[in-house]
Amino acid sequence: MSRVPKSIVDRFTKSIGKFQKVLRNAHDRDVNESDTVAIVTDILSEVFGYDKYLEVTREFAIRGTYCDLAIKMDDKVQFLIEVKAIGTDLKERHLRQAIDYGSNHGIKWVILTNGLEWQVHRIRFERPITHDLVCTLKFLELNVRSAKDHEALFLISKKGVRKDIREDYYEKVQSVNRFVVGALLLSTPVLVKVRQELRKISEGVKVDLSEVEEILRSEVLKRDVVDGDEAVVAAARVARFYRKVSRTTKKQQLKNTSVSAGAKDDSITESLLEETSLKVGERV
């Protein structure tokens, strides 16, 4: 991920402490949803750098219903934001509402927040519609000196959206996580390599791939890494990668074979032409 510009870090440093105080006070007073929306709008402006009059739209209309907020830049909606009252715990049904808003309008990025917690989701327009949690910000736990927190905030910031940091970060989250690592460890190429190394350690001992897989699956990896929906998605991602590698390898092999055959044909042709030339020369 790109380094967060110093000017953006300075804004985070100056504004986060202020809004942590505001949010604590609002939570103690248990302010309603409308007041929470007002606070979130100010955060979008002062922390994330958006023009709250030109780039933050309230009650964004989508097919007869409304989403609380939308970030709109260059006539394109960058985020849909569903806001709940600060005292409301964010639930799956709240998220489903926000995802429905995004999918109905072709908008990939959705934020669900109560001011204290900010969940950034990316919609995958598949059948059925699915989504991935890209990151979660706990605003009261943010450390103004933390580079990791700066990077997470940068995803939502105006400058970050301009640089399309979201997609890079999303790709990293999809590729570098415990579920993908677990799926890689259980893939055939890795199992073969582990078996080879085990045979080196214990010469003469027969080791089956199934044995290696069973040990990894039941004794090395945590259960949630190899079971459950996220594990299934990761395994499918790894399988697609190896299928792609296999197809590319086969295409290259066919290409190499074709080139070799062509070279051979050219050699025969040249020989026959040369032989014909010699015969003509002899007759002359």
Question: Could you explain the architecture of this structure?
Answer:
- With about 280 residues, this protein is α+β, with helices and mostly antiparallel strands.
- The protein has eleven helices and six strands.
- It has a six-stranded mixed sheet with strand order 1-2-3-4-5-6, with helices on both faces.
- Strand 3 (about 75-85), helix 3 (about 90-105) and strand 4 form a beta-alpha-beta unit.
- Helix 1 runs antiparallel to helix 2 (about 35-45) and helix 7 packs across helix 11 (about 230-284).
- The longest helix is centred in the last third of the chain and has 55 residues, at about 230-284.
- About 25% of the residues are buried.
